[in-house]
Design a protein that fits this description.
Elements lengths: L1 H9 L1 H19 L2 H29 L1 H30 L9 H5 L2 E11 L8 E3 L12 E4 L2 E9 L4 E5 L7 E5 L5 E5 L7 E8 L9 E4 L11 E10 L5 E8 L8 E7 L2 H23 L1
Antiparallel strand pairs: 1-2, 1-12, 2-5, 3-4, 3-12, 4-5, 6-7, 6-9, 7-8, 8-11, 9-10, 10-11
Amino acid sequence: MHNLAEFIARFKHWFVFIFLEVISLVLLFKYNNYQGSVWFSSANSVFGRVLEAKSDVEAFFSLTKTNQELTQRNLYLEREVSELQARVYDKTLGKDFIHKGQLEMLSNYRLIPAKVVDNSIDKPQNFITINKGTADGVREDMGVACGNGVVGIVYLVSKHYSVVIPVLNTESNISCAINGRGYFGYLHWRGGASDIAYLDDVPRHAKFRLHDKIVTSGYSSVFPPGVLVGEILHIYNSDDGLSYKLMVKLSTDFGNLRDVCVIDDASVKERLNLLEAAQDSIKEKTQGSDN
């Protein structure tokens, strides 16, 4: 307290000066129209700049949420485009097209947004780690996609994190189809470039063209149909000459992967239970015939 009193006594003339300056400025701007208008114009300009800077900061910190929303929206749009292209193709062939609407099809899926926390693209067995786990509803064997297309399949899950086997893994095996054509095969990565994979076992009688889109076939319980995978770059004969092997340019940029979505298909459990019941039935019939 003594030090404070000493400080005030030492600089009291400065405090008096500042007090008088404030009083004089108030009187000047309050009772003189011209000076008052200049002050308020300057004050509004400064205040406007402060608000603009505040808005920019808030916009920057909201980019994460915006990116997640865009990722989900891109997935919806990719599947919608695939659905519409298939409809156009089938109608031009004069076939009956009986498919549920896009919104009805998407109603069976819940998208769980996640961020990539670890990623590799230069190994034969690459893995991706995301920041969502069982606490968020993620389970093993769920499909993972981003706004540009397919990413991979959930392999291991903990409470708050999951490990994904991406397309860029030599053990990856995803059922895919040529969009609008109805022919399908299995997508494999053979190492090397991170934007090239191969679609194997495409039938010899299949009709398609270069740059046709490759999408998920929907023939597994992992991915819904129509999620973009890439486009055809080159056509090869298989080693045995009985099918085609297609070089596919992947639509997902695995070297710049940040925001993804885990696809939760509520109907998977029902389909797996049905398949298991069918397998059990076949086993029972087989055992009965043996007896």
